Amino acid sequence: MKIKAIALNTFKEAVRNKIFYLLIFFGIFFSFSSKLISILTIGDTLKILKDIGLASINFFSVIIAVFTGINLVYKEIEKKTVYFILSKPVERRDFILGKFLGLALTILVALTIMISFFSIFILLFSGTFDPYILLYFIFLFTELLIVISISILFSSFSTPILSSIFTIILYLIGHVIWTFNEFKYKFINPIEKIFAYSIYYLFPNLEKFNIKGAIVMNDPINIKIIFSTLAYGIFYVSAILLISIHIFKHREF
Amino acid sequence: MRKKKYLLFSLIFFLLISFSQYIYDLNKDYFKKKNTFLALPSGKTMRIFSFGNSELIADFLYIWSIQFFSNYNLLNSKDFIEDIYNLITDISPRYKDPYLLGSTIMAIEMNDIKMAVRLLQKGSKNMDDEWIFDFESGYYTSKYLKNYKLAEKYYKKSSKKKGAPEFISRMLYHSIYMQGKLEESLMLYQSVLKNAKTEIERRSANLHLYQIKFEIDKKKIKSAMDIFFNRYGFYPDNINELVTYRIIGEIPKDFKGHHYKYDKKKGTIDPKEGYMWKKQ
Known about the structure:
By secondary structure, chain A is mainly alpha-helical. Helix content of chain A is 80%, strand content 0%. Chain A has helices at 2-16, 18-38, 45-78, 81-87, 92-126, 132-155, 160-176, 180-183, 190-202, 212-217, 223-249. The mean pLDDT of chain A is 86. Chain A binds chain B through residues 37, 40-44, 47-48, 51-52, 55, 58, 172, 175-176, 179, 206-207, 210, 212-213, 216-217, 219, and chain B through 48-49, 51-56, 59, 62-63, 66-67, 92, 94-97, 100-101.
């Protein structure tokens, strides 16, 4: 109940921010502007529309996740409103979980709006509804849950600027960590090997949530890949939230 | 009043900006013929640094390549064509359009058929379910390189793929015919005629069969004429003398059942009616 109250409050606070609407507007605007760019191509214009549209939604939803996430916990500490909350019978764990769920709801709403507009746009253009876009929605949402959990983790002990830098760096690492598989055979020394593998498994592998290529090329996606990826996302979010709770619990105000 | 003053000044500055841009445009030759230089990273590097947006990068590179190769003021733009389309197809190996457009520019504008076929074969390897790459390879190899044996290989590969249109089989048979395999192509075109569903298919098969039969008959008559000439020192006045002198069992007729025209000076036959020749 307490978690729900904090979550709803977090959601209301996030949607009160005008930047939230501006970012959604830009996400939709850039999705639609793909029609202009597609004029310049020869061949499959639907691919261009989907690529630019999905990339725009991805980009702006990550921006919403990072910048809303880093501010929420820090603002409470900075404005000292956290004292009022924690002086009541609210556990620090509930506070973090409430913040996370509120942010997740915010992202869910933003993503639903952007994906709905984009689906209608594709439907009007191609005449068919692409069900893979729904799968993309689920994958992107799971990826964003990881991003917001990371941003909450950093904002629980750092300043907003540093938190945003750390979160963005982790997001970028998350999208290039797959390259480890291409040079992992070069580690022969067991210590180096353990170190390299630890880093590989520790950092979030966000590229596995990227199914834009498969959607655009109409490639089939293995059901095992779908479930293992979603499970990975849930486990990762849980782990990060537990660390965040641990840090926040031991933090002195 | 103060607000309006600022607006007025900003308007003056915008006018000055437009004027300076106008002067710049007057003095700048945007369409000057020049050489260009391009240094491209590898496809793998681009994929890594696209941070999950490799398809988008491939799209932008493809759109840029269209503008780049449409610019005829860049004198050496074609020097980079293979690198550019290899880069795009390395980033997005299953993006069909760059293979097709790249190979078209290579073949039609640069006349480099081998380069075009190389790109198309890369496409065939990366999308082994697509028939178009092998078909285009066969077409370029047959039309420009006149390498019908290689064209036969590509057409055969293409015709076996899912969704391949029927006409590829006819092009395959044509490449077999162009290699001089007359008996084999006669048999293949007879099956085309038998299974033809459209008027175009029927007409195409008829034209081929007419010509193939004529070439087979021409060879047969030529060898009979050589025997006659060696025996008597001249060609017969009438072609039927080949039967009379028992050199040949019967005089062949064309595919439509008409007699061939006989040239007694040369001892050769020609088709009676004109038709679209398949082999020039």
